[in-house]
Design goal:
The chain has 15 helices and 20 strands. The protein is of the alpha/beta class and 467 residues long. Belongs to the peptidase M17 family.
């Protein structure tokens, strides 16, 4: 992974080129104070101060070879991505913001502009030298590095082809982190999985024996502290099962473990920041494959909870494995449960790729998530747990069906299904995230993406640390 710690350093007064941040409204006033040569060059370049623009300009003295003029959307409200375009294109060197400007979360985009997954290129692009940003906020340097590492982890895991990231490799990723973090790992598979977590086993049975399903759990922290469970959907590849997806729908299904990637990244942040919680990470890891061992439409599955589930659609498998994992989280007395999942196409139809559909049974937790998403520029959008749609999950033969009997409200009915497996009185939030960026933006290449990760991190941090 990119060594982000070398790209953002505390400013100790060493030499650095200046980044002058302006917006289109303030640019004319800024130009009035510039020497004639600099002003003429800027005007000739037709620099307008728009977000994403930058322009290399002569330094104010012969000893300063050049400065950089950077356009931002609004000077008083820097976003995490306002420096990313410049960071992607500037020459190697060391930079600092001019005047008394603080980078804040803009340092995150600066860092992530340097990161790409290149392991699969036979001839990777020639590496460019590092662009180092000096920050006058030493207390925030480590914070931004941690967030960049967590985001890059999600991106890299989601971008890795399914042939190289199966249930065993997800387990290895958790074990590698846990060993360094001092967390305990427990993995359930084989007969124990079939008996104890029958829906996780059923979804992954078609991939046996080579890619055996499993429930991966990690625990960290003082058992006397508040219990926080983080659950992530780990479907390493989703064919749709016997309700087979078309080729276009299957193409990106290596990303169906995006929820697990978010959950692991959040766990890493929590442990790195030493929160006063008892953390329980749960990742049900399966491949939804096609074989003689595949579960079928019309099958009735038992669950760890005890409810029986009739299978209406084998492509609604994510909620099945999450249900067993949510039940397990509740058994250990979690006070708060948050799950991440690339769960429904309906969420993308409703909200597009950028906004995770967010559900919660707790008004305070929901409010915290929405506020935090706005504050850290990682927006989420709340949808209702509408009780009136519960009847869509009725089954004539079992306690409920895994898929609604209507094409309407697919995101909501999926969340209502999950709610059946959350214990009463436990604050729970469910994020139906895309985990993918379909088109590149500065600092955010096309491919795997962390969407909702920073929002949940900030909300839970306020709940368990800041308060």
């Amino acid at each position: 992974m990119t060594d982000f710690a070398t790209l953002l350093r505390p400013d100790r007064g060493g030499p650095a080129r200046l980044l002058h941040l302006v917006d289109s409204g303030l640019l004319p006033e800024w130009l009035k104070n510039q020497a004639g040569q600099r002003r003429a060059l800027i005007e000739a370049a037709r620099f307008e101060g728009k977000a994403g623009q930058h322009l290399v300009i002569p330094g104010p003295t012969p000893a300063a070879d050049f400065d950089v003029l950077v356009g931002v959307a609004k000077l008083g409200a820097l976003t995490p991505w306002c420096l990313a375009a410049a960071a992607e294109r500037l020459p190697e060197g060391t930079y600092r913001l001019a005047g008394d400007m603080l980078p804040g979360t803009a340092a995150l985009g600066w860092l992530l502009a340097h990161h790409r997954l290149t392991a699969y290129k036979s001839k990777p692009d020639a590496p460019t030298g590092p662009r180092v940003l000096l920050s006058p906020e030493p207390a925030r340097v480590d914070e931004m590095v941690r967030l960049a590492e967590a985001t890059a982890l999600v991106r890299d895991l989601v971008d890795t082809p399914a042939a190289d990231l199966g249930p065993a490799e997800l387990e290895r990723a958790v074990r590698d982190w846990a060993k360094a973090a001092g967390a305990e790992v427990e993995v359930t598979k084989g007969d124990a999985l079939e008996q104890g977590y029958p829906m996780i086993h059923a979804v992954g049975a078609a991939a046996l024996p080579a890619r055996a399903p499993r429930l991966i759990e990690a625990r960290w922290g003082d058992p006397s502290h508040p219990k926080l469970a983080i659950v992530g959907k780990g479907v390493v590849f989703d064919t749709g099962g016997l309700d087979l997806k078309p080729a276009t729908g299957m193409r990106l299904m290596k990303k169906d473990m995006g929820g697990a990637a978010h959950a692991l990244a959040l766990a890493r942040l929590i442990v790195a920041e030493r929160w006063p919680v008892r953390l329980h990470l749960l990742i049900p890891a399966v491949e939804n494959a096609v074989s003689g061992g595949a579960f079928r439409p019309g099958d009735i599955l038992s669950s760890r909870h005890g409810l029986t589930v009739e299978i209406d659609n084998t492509d609604a498998e994510g909620r099945l494995i999450l249900a067993d994992a949510l039940t397990r989280a509740g058994e250990e007395g979690a006070a708060t449960i948050v799950d991440f999942a690339t769960l429904t196409g309906a969420a993308r139809v409703a909200l597009g790729p950028d906004l995770p559909a967010t559900f919660s049974n707790d008004e305070a937790l929901a409010a915290d998530l929405l506020a935090a998403g706005t504050d850290v520029a990682d927006p989420v959008w709340r949808l209702p747990l509408w009780d009136g749609y519960d009847d869509m999950l009725k089954s004539d033969l079992a306690d409920l069906s895994n898929s609604a009997d209507s094409p309407f409200a697919g995101t909501i009915t999926a969340a209502l299904f999950l709610r059946r497996f959350v214990p009463e009185g436990v604050a729970w939030a469910h994020l139906d995230t895309f985990a993918w960026r379909p088109a590149p933006r500065p600092g955010r290449p096309k491919g795997g993406e962390a969407l909702g990760l920073r929002a949940v991190h900030a909300a839970l941090q306020r709940r368990y640390v800041s308060r």
